[in-house]
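User: My collaborator sent over this chain with a note saying "see what the structure looks like." That's all I know about it. Can you take a look?
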Amino acid sequence: MKPTKNRVFCRACSKTKMLFESQAKADNFIKFNGDEILEESGKKPSRSYYCELCGGYHVTSIDSEVVGERIDMLVKSKVDSYKKQKKQLKERKQETIAESRYLTEKAKKAREAMCFERMDDVYDAIELFELELERLSLTDERYRSRWTKKLNSLKAQISSVCELLTLSDDEQKSYVTSESHKQPAKILKSILAVRRAKEILLEAERLFEIFDVAKANQMIEECRRFVNLIDSPWKDYIKKEIASQIVLLENNHSLSDVSIDN
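Assistant: Without extra context I'll predict from the sequence alone. Here is the result:
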């Protein structure tokens, strides 16, 4: 009977073959089914052999050791070639993951910097993004094309936000409300929130300078509450940056107090 179970496509010989987990099972298959297979197909399996690609044993009708060895050498060559290709693909996949993380991080840095209107940092991140794209292999044209589209989208968003910043306060607020689902609106909303947080800290600094420490501390707490309520994709970065500015403000005036006391 022709085998119907445990059939796999073997890359080594480019055929569908039976696969056995042990040589004993393969040999037993030949012993109990060989004659019937000969009657049906005209070929009788005569020996078993281990296939590295399939990770198990196949049976074959080629009983000549010389021919068998030659075929085994060809199979081994295919196995070695397959392993080499697999290793190269794995290495390339790891490189692609690292590149994707790098490009994603640069796009994120550009948008984060835009929230604080740090245009030098924005353009530095975009430039590093472009340099990495140029470094990519020409064989990765589809991959490069996908990231080029993302880069162009990022540039368009930054350009749109720069234009939006020239509008009046009412026009900006209207845009943020009506186009809240768009990326430029999210960036603009974050910018306006950061501006408000900075205004609160400027007031706190003014109060420190006239030695109204109690009110200054109240303003700092107000700033913390305000920042915690910010709705932005870059909320964590904004909170971290504003927190650093608060610490710097508190430390500066703490040192000033020490100087005055001395």
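A starting point for your reply to your collaborator: Strands lie at 7-10, 15-18, 47-51, 56-60.
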